[in-house]
Here is the input.
Amino acid sequence: MDKVRFEISGPLGILTLANPPLNLFSGEVIEDLRAAVTTVKQSSLRALLVRAEGKIFSDGADVSVFQGRIPAAASKQRSLNHGFSL
Here is the structure.
């Protein structure tokens, strides 16, 4: 997890987006988030703080992940990227 950090401090989990300056949601960030969420699910935290490095929490998706894809493939990728939850 290079683009997302997860730490535990007692009963508090701290998840940090570490992709400044814009903290864009790229494929790598999505994968790192999935790994962090898996860790969160397996822990006995009482609270989870989600934060980001830099001045901007997130400026949205990194649209370069859709470059060179036909609309159907881009739509499928977008669906896969939004398929994680806490």
In short: The first strand starts at residue 4 and ends at 9. The first helix runs from residue 27 to 42. The mean pLDDT is 84. The radius of gyration is 14 Å.
